[in-house]
Task: structure prediction
Amino acid sequence: MLNRRNFLASSLAASSLGLSSPLSPALAHKRGEKYVLPQKYMPRKVWLRRYLPPGEVHVFPDEFALYWTMPGRRAIRYSVGVGRGNLYHSGTFYVGAKKEWPEWTPTPDMMKREPNSYKKFAKGMPFENGQPGGISNPLGARALYLFTREKGDSYLRIHGTNKPRTIGVAVSNGCARLVNDQVVVLYDQVPMGTKVVLNPKANAGPPHS
Result:
């Protein structure tokens, strides 16, 4: 369960951005999870040093940051975990689907890389048709599905997580993750069809002052 101090801090951060409180403490993280998300990982409004069109999502992996851009060179900055090693894939995408408490199945590449980790998804096993949505699901409370015009679903996601210690870390199989209470807020902000830019690693530096 997300402890009261962490939940109140998240709620206050959301309130300061003009947002409603997204989740109850019971839904935010696994029962027994005792971790206070550092203040530096709370969402905040920032000024952009360089122009980014409003109404877009930009991920800067070196900064472990996701920006939801607004008019007047403003943005809301969220902290994220990103893909580890060469599993991070930069590019330009759009939000092709949105799901609340999404189900999840590892990709064939993931199962090939780590067969022991994903053996429960093999034929005849309990999750062969995918893990149902819920607090233990790796996609967390919400997911934005990233598509390209050429290929459709890229299998990359911006999603929630019940593992807050993975924020600010290159740990995932390529997706960007936010803590559950913050991804609920982002999910409500970002409409279908929104442009999403996953910027390359070793970029020119933080875009905000």
Summary: The mean pLDDT is 79. The chain has one domain: 46-198. The radius of gyration is 17 Å. Helices lie at 4-16, 25-28, 108-113, 180-189.
